[in-house]
Amino acid sequence: KRRELILAFESSCDETSVAVIEDGYKILSNIVATQINSHKRFGGVVPEVASRHHIEQITLCLEDALCEAGVDYKDLSAVAVTYGPGLVGALLVGVAAAKVVAFTHGLPLIPVNHMAGHIYAARFVEPIVFPALALLVSGGHTELVYMAETNSYEIIGETRDDAAGEAYDKVGRVLGINYPAGKEIDRLAHLGKDNFNFPRAMVDEDNFDFSFSGLKSSFINTVHHADQIGKKLDHKDLAASFQQSVVDVLAQKTVRALRKYPVKQLILAGGVAANKGLRERIENEIEQFDDTSLLMAPLQLCGDNAAMIGAAGYVAWKAGIKADMSLNAEPSLEF
Ligand code: KG4
Ligand code: ZN
Fold it and tell me: What sequence ranges are listed for the domain Gcp-like (predicted)?
């Protein structure tokens, strides 16, 4: 049987990435060019800067991805690309590149939702078993997604304000931690204690929605108030308290969702899924569900990358999902 090779593009935010995936789950190459250093001094991603970097990087990433995989255009079966959600100027670069390759080489063009891509990062560990529930936590999104079957995504709960990763990045700023702050707060959290007892928003409400802006404000007010009275707060304890609040809310809402939607598999994915505290807590919580297994995206594939887009693109391609040359970036794409 001829191996099925997908060439995948990702450029929705601040990483330019191109990958070659075999049979939907083997990574032949996954080149990621990060722009984090260019955005750090602004404390977040600057859209115009992001677009320019993508333009500079995309063909270099493409050449590297094909070279590392040892494949030629004629070996490819399809081209997958993130077309949303994300920054419009950033997305356009990947979409244009994917269209050029698909058109020139007569290959099918597969449109992929970035968030579906995050879920499929878990496919590199083992196959996804349906029905499944995904806790998707990233810099732009925090949502619980029910998947009855392949290519079916239903948001059953989401954040009403900030995404979890966004809250990490914003509180990181008041602690003087560079963007993106999640990893460093996670490290500090493991060295401190939860003695600030920050709020846990909406945990008792009978829904699957989240809110992190109250926690963020409470954190920032605590730090500013201490500054005003000249008191020094322990950053390790602040980090531990913040993280405990985020993890408590994410875990409790996920448990609530699993009770209402019994599934065979719980998937943890997105940039914040790299969080050690969250991974440990979800591993513990899943024990109470005998019929549900836990599938976590591998640490190195939690952040944005094209391999995950290739894996999601593969199942979409198998289902006959295709785009034509009119495909456009959709910055506010929903499932
Ligand atoms: O999925 P992602 O790479 O980009 C988006 O699609 O948003 O997620 C990036 C987010 C950032 O907010 C970053 O601070 C957060 O993921 N993050 C973490 C950790 N590693 C990255 N948050 C908490 N703990 C971590 N270990
Ligand atoms: Zn992402």
Answer: 26-310
Closest listed residue to residue 302, CA positions, set 146, 176, 182: 182
Q: Regarding beta strands 154-158 and 142-147, do their DSSP bridges make them parallel or antiparallel, or are they unpaired? A: antiparallel
Specify the pLDDT at position 1: 77
What residues pair up with 6 in beta bridges, in sequence order? 21, 78
Kindly report the CATH number that applies to the domain delimited by 5-120+302-318: 3.30.420.40
Q: CATH 3.30.420.40 in the chain, residues?
A: 5-120+302-318, 129-296
- pLDDT (mean) for 34-53: 90
Specify the pLDDT at position 196.
96
What's the gap in Å between 138 CA and the centre of ligand 2? 6
What band does 37 get if pLDDT is binned at 50, 70 and 90? confident
- Interface pTM, i.e. ipTM: 0.98
Are 215 and 198 in contact by the 8 Å Cβ rule? The answer is yes
Give yes or no for residue 168 CB within 6 A of ligand 1.
yes
pLDDT of 40: 86
Please identify, in words, the CATH class of the domain defined by 129-296: alpha beta
pTM score of the predicted model: 0.96
Secondary structure string (H, E, C) spanning 278-303: HHHHHHHHHHHCCCCEEEECCHHHCC
